[in-house]
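Subject line: Sequence and fold of a protein, written as structure tokens
Enclosed: The protein record, placed directly beneath this head.
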Amino acid sequence: MRKPQLPPSFEVLQERMDSAQEFWANLSKVKESSAFKQYLHWEEVRHRTPPEGLTHEQWWTGLKVLRRLEYKQTPLRDKQGKAFVFSTPDKVIEHLHMLDRRAGGMQDNSTHFIDHKMHDQYMIASLMEEAATSSQLEGAATTRQEAQALLRSGRAPVNRHERMILNNFRTMRRLLDLVNETMSAELLLDIHRWITEDTMEDAAAAGRFRTESDKVYVSDQTEDVLFVPPPAGELKARMEALYMFSNGNTPDYFLHPVLRSMMLHFWLAYDHPFVDGNGRVARALFYWSMLRHHYWLMEFVSISPILLLAPSGYARAFLYTETDDNDLTYFLLHQVRVLDKAVKELDAHLLRKIREGQEAERRLQGLEELNHRQRGLITHALHHPNAQYTIASHRNSHGVTYQTARTDLLELEALGLLNKTTKGKAFFFTPVVKLEKRLGNTA
């Protein structure tokens, strides 16, 4: 994608104002305009019809005046030492309220709650989804189905793309146990090492910050440079500031935890402290921060599939921020919309699972001895008659021990619901022919 056009200099626009009285008289028109309500960048404003009686430049001047009245400074500085700023327009506040209710508060009985029996299964499925799509955003050439098959099977990765996915999955699982840790150089470098192990051209670059000799930049598909990060010589000080921010020690005013987590995502991506893997680390830090602030639903929410559907919008959110007075509001608006969509997709998924569960209960009447894992597998088998299950895939899908997974599958075989074959020392299980009829006979 191409860089957005730089907005006109606010200082120059101020000098061009005909009169302050006339400007303030037109400010109400600006406030009622779509550009104000939607928080549009100059790249979009310049292609729209301005309010009656205003030029595009006058319109933009009014927008900037209104926005600058609301700006708050963050501890993040650009390459020239200028602070990144943000505001909280109504849409941000609305999404934060919904996220607080849905992702951070008590589980509402009127919504599709996470069944405690299915907790591990849903969590693992979400982590698999995030691991796969976060890697795809960074160039991993694989399908969602192939990625999930890799993670469920437990087999060793055969190429760099599979290694990226496996690393992401293992890292996300580790982060669940690190939410009470304070951010530090040691922890950040560990996260990078876990994510990039055996995937970098220079293996020594895993778990270290980039140096002046590393030529790092962000480009588009045509190799046009979109962004050059701050000099490597500044990284020590920049990372110290990031740790302070991550741990809640800055700024000196209340910052909503979701906004802090999103800013942390942007901060890591902006400073780009590593030779490779910055995007994956940035998204991992976002999850770590959200879970650290007790947004429990984030164990089950995956944002990368939403980003993957519109990667240009993700990139544009960064570019809009960087080209308009370091205004992080563009990035925050994009991220709250992504997160809102991800939560809604989780709700839709849970609703489907509830309906599938109700249908499965009807079909499995008379088989009360089956546990929830076995019921889930048989429900899956009814929809996928050619599926193949192993002890490893069942174990990895539910986060249970080898013996528990083995017992689950052998019991289903004993009931005549699965066929078992042996290849070498491994057992393979497949649904019996006409499984639904068999269930009816069993019941």
